[in-house]
Amino acid sequence: MSPMLEISDLHVAYGKVEAVRGVSLSLSKGQIVTVIGPNGAGKTTLLAATIGLLPSRGRLVFDGEDLFKLDVEARVEHGFCLVPETRELFGELTVYDNLVLGAYPRRSDRAFVNRALEEAYGRFPRLAERRMQRADTLSGGERQMLALGRAMMSAPRLLMLDEPSLGLAPLIVRDILRNVAALRDSGVSILLVEQNARAALEIADYGYVLETGEVVLDGEASSLLGNARVQASYLGGGH
Amino acid sequence: MTTEIAIILLLDGIANGAIYLLAGLGLVLIFSVTRVVFVPFGDITAFCVLSIAAFELGRPPGTIWMVAILAVIATVIDVAGHIRSGEAARIPHSLLFYGLLPLIPCVLAWFAASHALPHAVQIVLAMALVLPIAPLLDRIAFRPAADASVLVLLIIALALHFALSGLGLMFFGAEGFRIRPVVDGIYVLGGGVIVSAQVLLMVITAALLSLLFFLFFERSMSGRALRATAVNRIGARLVGIRPARTGTIAYFIASLLAGVSAILVGPTTTIYYDSGFMIGLKALIGAIIGGFTSYPIAALGAVLVGIMESFASFWSSSFKEVIVFGLLIPVLLWQSWKTAGHADEAGEELEMPDAIALSAPLRYGLIGTVVIALLIAPVLLGSFAITLFNYIGISALAALGLVLLTGIGGMTSFGQAAFVGIAAYATAWATVTLGLSPWIGLLLALAMTGLAALAIGALTLRLDGHFLSLSTIAWGISIYFLFGNVASLGQNTGMAGIPPITILTMPLISSQTIYYLIWLIVGLAMLASANLLNSREGRAIRSLRGGNVLLASLGVDIFRIRLVTFVLAALLAGLAGWLYAHMNRFVSPAPFDVKPGIEYLLMAMAGGAGHIVGAVAGSALITLLKNWLQDVLPLVTNNPAQFEIIAFSILLILLLQNARGGLVAFIAKRLPKGTQPPPAAAEPMARRALPENGTLILKVEDAVRTFGGLTAVNKVNFELKAGEILGLIGPNGAGKSTMFNLLTGALQANAGRITFLDEDVTRRPQMDIARMGIARTFQHVKLRPNMSLIDNVALGAYARTATGFLKSALRLDRTEERRTLHEAQRQLQRVGLGDKPHELAGNLPLGGQRILEVARALAADPVLVVLDEPAAGLRPPEKEALARVLRQIRDEGVTILIVEHDMDFVMGLVDRLVVMEFGCKLVEGDPAAVRADPKVQEAYLGGVL
Predict the structure, then answer these.
(1) Alpha-carbon distance B96 to A65, whole Å?
(2) Maximum distance among all alpha carbons in chain A?
(3) Mean of the per-residue pLDDT values for chain A?
(4) How far apart (Å, rounded) are the C-alpha atoms in residues B511 and B385?
(5) CA pair distance A156, A81, nearest whole angstrom
(6) CB–CB of B944 and A93 under 8 A?
(7) Is B243 helix (H, G, I), strand (E, B) or coil?
(8) Whether B636 contacts B321, CB under 8 Å
(9) pLDDT tens-digit map of B698-716
């Protein structure tokens, strides 16, 4: 089966510094692939370049389409979504507005938007309670739920998540990641970047370990969990 | 004032306010989506009125040509853009959207003009004609600079306005027009008050449109998309909204609003080709009141402006403008106060100047050549050329002020011409009215300029970024109107018969004689400025662009530095004004308007705003260009004056889009670079007595900090003893950075106590805490990339030295400066960066920059050094080098607090660890014990599911 997402030999540079150096990974339909690694490894840069917010060179193919021909907005229209580390919510707009805007690529189909909204409220009841509140009044966990909910509104085929557990209490992280696993079960392919290595590997199918811009290890998620080097890195190797 | 008059004035004010309201809505809309302060809004309104007027007279309106030209330019730019980025497929779309669509109303108008049209059709056609203007201007001028700062966009907007006025005069002529009212008739309200139907229409239209606005933004998807783009551009892109497209929609709506404003204002006011400026500026006040974000408040503000203007004109019609624009300043202050503390960065508003490092022989050679050339010029050149040189010299002084203030200090001022004017009028009044000597006039001119600058600066210099620049427009215009309205200053006719300057017994009447005085003063001013910039205060001025947090953390009184720089710039303008008055022997308000103010800015920027030499280069460039255009244009066109304005505006826009470094930067890049020797040895500086090892120096008790609903730091406690290295660690989002900011004073705690060296520092500002002995580094390195290593480190020693501005300008600070540089070199050597002290900081790799920040912190002779995530983004060898430096300085007695999340880095380095998680202290103790603690393992490894 041809991969949903194929990244080959990607190089991303910030001025003189190469933050991502020749990274290759692939993601099949209906999989969760996780990229773990210490801070400063280049994980966020990798995602930002893949969605198109940063210039890069190499090969990026999404479901057979060469991504370099499409700008960010076009990639989103093709069903490719990113929830960045900074969430990038519309703080001054309500929860409702944020969600509805998530469906922007499908805005002409009113019925679709309403259905997607109901699904989002069903998945995240807390958001339904706070639907008329401004997004910047939500707590950290609720903001993450909103970010995730907004990303799901356009029914993307591939979702990239950048550190969804960031700054969240364990109970909430469990909730979020359970939702992520459920998304995979409903057919969405997911590229998950995480600092919380164990939690990520426990729901992923496949994993890549990124250090200083390069992939140093990859394999089935279950085997990575038991890998001694991964164990060691995550206790002492920086977070 | 009777009640009747008051009511009439009130209604009048509301009616005018309605126009400003619509304009204000348009301005807020465009600003919120594109960050452009769309000054040309008023011009579009004026053009719409003039178009309707043309239809009423059965003539084709000049707008046809204007739109056609803009359409052609925009199409060419768009097509060229597509070709360059290889998207040839989008060319037909460009041709259609930017070429064909705008031309349709043009063609219609052309054919329809000669027929007698019903009034309603005239109105619709005129509006259709102006509808494309704003989106076309966006494509031509703003979109190529989309990532520029608000300030650059503002300057582009101003330049556009001037270009449009020029075009307006060409296409519409100088005649003013009124149009027929849309509705006729009057109504009589209760109490015998009469109101015209037109006024009622204005108020109702404004209210209706506001309602529509509200519905559009709150209920429709497009409206939501516009708001989203305004609130978060990146977020908008991530959901598939194209900011360029929403920008275009915003501009269309603005054009529509401008058209409606035209219908309302046209019947009640005579509109000329340049009436737009005032409409735009007054709407701007409303927009500013609304903070550029709130439509209802902007609307209210606009109506208030209308009412204010109405009453002001009743009380004193000549000072009406002064009052209205003067009002802008308290409004800006209030806005700035509201947003205080939200963002740190004064930031890089106009482009960073490149450093020039010419070799000494080359530098002196160039200076020598120029001096000799200047000395012999009057002998070789004719009188006309010398007069030109004189004007160059005078404007170079004003431009020099802007180089210091704007280019280096980062504070953009559009009001430099106003200060030139104050000095010119002061000396004119002293010599003509009071009959005093021109030298007394000089004293008076400088005194008045200085005092005015002090007062204005004290009021406005706490504003940041574009608020500050907007305020300079406010007082610049107010002062200009003041000149034109005060009877004893001759009002618009000005003052003539100003005597020449006399040196000993010789009057400087001919251009050759005053030439030497002018250029002597220019030379001295440049020398003093150069001395100043190479001194302690000069380093502080050069670092203003680094942001408030950087300077405060170095113990610098930012406000004082800004104020002095502002006054210096004004005094330079004052010198220019004095010379101008006594050379020209005549003053009038015209040369002191905002337009000349922008010209000075253009000179500084064209020459190279970051370099003292740039002032002369730019002044020469622009003056000669103007002169050449004045010769050439009359041969080419019947409207030379307008073309000159247009040409300059285009030049300014192109400069801002492409070459913000100016002429000097352009040339300097191509000259060979020189090297400088390391600083000479000097006496070491006095040092603080460090507390004995083991003494308690820092105590944090139950510190709390919240942000809205989020508690970032939740009752954290810990202590720090002299001579130890403490690590504050935790996962991302644990609250470490917030805690760090509480310690350095960048943020204030909501509750709890922080004690340093037995003093309560919980509420103390950064500057004080820095001076008490806490030096810091930054997670995102805050160096001055275009300053040398040694200058960056010398900045750290600011609080240990004391030489002020005057001594520095007169170069009386050499002893202290030698000691400072020697100290800086010592710190560089201590951290291992001592071999290339004159290297530019921006050329160092990240690891080196982090270490440089440590050197800078050490130059402050601190008791405690706090480091903010120093290992982030470093490669292993760089981390090792940093750890070595830190261990070494600890051994020399400096206490260190490191905030980090890299466990590996802190493990071998610290004596003790404090671990934070979700804002609370999780565990504290020695590294090995902490690492083995199951709670810590849980926090770092996760293990949630």
Answers:
(1) 28
(2) 52
(3) 88
(4) 9
(5) 6
(6) no
(7) helix
(8) no
(9) 999 999 998 876 788 999 9
Distance CA B720, CA B896 (A): 9
Q: Check residues B363 and B444 and name the one with the higher pLDDT.
A: B444
Of B733, B873, B945, the CB nearest to A40: B873
Query: What's this model's pTM, rounded to 2 decimal places?
Result: 0.82
pLDDT at A238 > cutoff 50: no
- Section B795-803 average pLDDT: 90
β-pair partners for B186 = B196
Question: For residues A207 and A201, what is the distance between their CA atoms, to the nearest angstrom?
Answer: 7
* Measured distance CA(B568)–CA(B566) in Å, rounded: 5
Q: Does the structure show a pLDDT above 60 at B813?
A: yes
SS3 labels along A20-34: EEEEEEEECCCCEEE
Q: Is B410 exposed, middle or buried (0-12, 13-18, 19+ CB in 10 A)?
A: buried
- B568-593 exposure pattern, b = at least 16 Cβ within 10 A, e = fewer: bbbbbbbbbbbbbbbbbebbbbebbb
Whether pLDDT at B774 is above 90: yes
The band of B943, judged by pLDDT with boundaries at 50, 70 and 90, is: very low
Q: Does B925 touch chain A (CB under 8 A)?
A: no
Q: Which H or E run includes B662?
A: helix B662-668
Say which DSSP state B431 is in.
I
Task: Give the whole-angstrom CA distance, residue B396 versus residue B417.
Answer: 12
B732 contacts A73? CB cut-off 8 A:
no
Angle at which helices B197-219 and B3-34 cross, to 10°:
30
Place of tokens 């004080």: B768
Predicted-assembly ipTM surpassing the 0.90 threshold: yes
Mutate to test the interface with A, among B216, B219, B239 (most CBs of A within 10 A): B239
- Count of alpha carbons within 13 angstroms of residue B759, beta-carbon side: 11
Q: Give the pLDDT band of residue B213 (cuts 50, 70, 90).
A: confident
A237–B901 C-beta distance less than 8 A: no
A101 contacts in chain B (CB < 8 Å):
224-225, 228, 239, 241
Beta-bridged to residue A14, according to DSSP, are A17
In the structure, what pLDDT confidence band is assigned to residue B425 with cuts at 50, 70 and 90?
A: very high
Q: Please tell me the predicted confidence (pLDDT) of residue A237.
A: 37
Highest mean pLDDT among A185-194, B155-164, B681-690 belongs to A185-194
Residue B333's pLDDT is: 78
DSSP B63-125: HHHHHHHHHHHHHHHHHHHHHHTT-GGGHHHHIIIIIIHHHHHHHHHHHHTTS---HHHHHHH
Contact B733 A140 (CB under 8 A): yes
Q: Give strand pairing partners of A160.
A: A82, A191
Say if residues A6 and A26 touch (Cβ distance below 8 Å).
yes
Q: Where are the beta strands (DSSP E) in B129-213?
A: 186-189, 193-196
Best-predicted range by mean pLDDT (A69-83, B10-24, B588-602): A69-83
**Structural Rg of chain B based on CA atoms:** 31
Handedness of CA B910, B914, B917, B923 (dihedral sign): positive
Q: How far is residue B235's CA from residue B213's CA, in Å, rounded to a whole number?
A: 23
